[in-house]
Design brief:
Elements lengths: L1 E6 L2 E4 L4 E9 L6 E7 L6 E7 L5 E3 L7 E6 L4 E6 L8 E9 L2 E5 L3 E6 L1
Parallel strand pairs: 2-11
Antiparallel strand pairs: 1-3, 3-8, 4-5, 4-9, 5-6, 7-8, 9-10, 9-11
């Protein structure tokens, strides 16, 4: 099994910054991607960012491009999401996930991010 634990969420003012971490443990495959998603109350879960484990390719939702940066530390089996210039609409529970083949098969429990105006 694969286990993911997010941390680093909290309450910040608009324009502030926050860094999320996701620690991965358990069985792993030789090739997989990591992703960050978020879900606000009453809304569907949406894609935020993704990265190959080697760090060779990254992808971002248009809403966060230029403000958020996804990165990883392979030696620590950890993926990060640096969030700058935060806006109230960024308020959500943030989840990390592991993509196996064509789908995200493993998910963390989530960490709350709240941005006040």
């Amino acid at each position: 099994q694969v286990h993911l634990v997010e941390s680093g969420g909290g309450l910040v003012q608009a324009g502030g910054s926050l860094r999320l971490s996701c620690a991965v443990s358990g069985r792993t495959l030789s090739r997989y991607h990591m992703g960050w998603f978020r879900q606000a109350p009453g809304k569907e879960r949406e894609f935020v960012a993704s990265i190959t484990w080697s760090g060779g390719n990254t992808d971002y939702a248009d809403s966060v491009k230029g403000r958020f940066t996804i990165s990883r530390d392979g030696a620590k089996n950890t993926v990060y999401l640096q969030m700058n210039s935060l806006k109230p609409e960024d308020t959500a529970v943030y989840y990390c996930a592991v993509k196996i083949g064509q789908s995200y098969a493993y998910w963390g429990q989530g960490t709350q991010v709240t941005v006040s105006s």
